[in-house]
Amino acid sequence: MKRPLRRELMFQLVETSRLMRTYVDQRAREHGTTRAQWGVLARLRRQEGLNQAALAEQMDLQPISLARLLDRLQGQNLIERRENPADRRAYLLYLTPAGRRLVDDLDDVRGAIAHELLGEVGDEAVLSALETLGTIRERIRPQRGEDRSRPPLAADRMA
Predict the structure, then answer these.
(1) pLDDT score for 39
(2) Which of 62, 86, 91, 146 could make an S-S bridge to 141, C-beta 3.0–4.6 Å?
């Protein structure tokens, strides 16, 4: 029996998301990092100087989970925590030169992944998919009690 079209789309989105996470995890490991670490590095490149609480909120992570990620990244000399002159209890997060090099190198990987997975899919189809995903994301937010003024979360997940 064939599933209704909208249910099939939801099923395919969930399954495709799972497969993509696994694939990106594998590709990240080939470069000595994880998908989660890649996401942190990419976010910090766009917004250096964030504090840990703001970064956790933007990435939809629990602060303790992010703290562990940051500890590993700092231990690998990829990020640094600097004192916040406005709040001595908080630190501001910055990429180190090594962290910047890694995230820049990962841009090529992100491009390769997009090419491998999207192949010959045309720009119109990509734009349509982005619009549909945006609509779904905006409908999910009120269900989760999220503030609609926050920037989209899924757009930066893959770094």
Answers:
(1) 94
(2) 146
Range of the domain at 47: 27-137
Which residue, chain included where needed, has tokens 């090594």?
Answer: 98
Residue type, 81: R
Judged by DSSP in three states, 95 sits in: strand
CATH number of the CATH domain containing 46:
1.10.10.10
Between CA 40 and CA 31 the distance in angstroms is 15
pLDDT digits (tens, 9 = 90+) for 49-75: 999 999 999 998 898 999 999 999 999
| Structure token digits, residue 38 | 């890649």
Residue 121 lies in a domain: yes
Q: What's the helix, strand, coil split of the chain in %, to 5?
A: 65, 10, 25
Q: Is residue 112 part of a domain?
A: yes
pLDDT in tens, 92-133: 999 999 999 999 999 999 999 999 999 999 999 999 999 999
What is the C-alpha separation between 93 and 33, in angstroms, rounded?
A: 18
Looking at the structure of the chain, the number of domains it has is: 1
Q: 31 lies in a domain? A: yes
Q: What's the CA gap between 127 and 131, in Å, rounded? A: 6
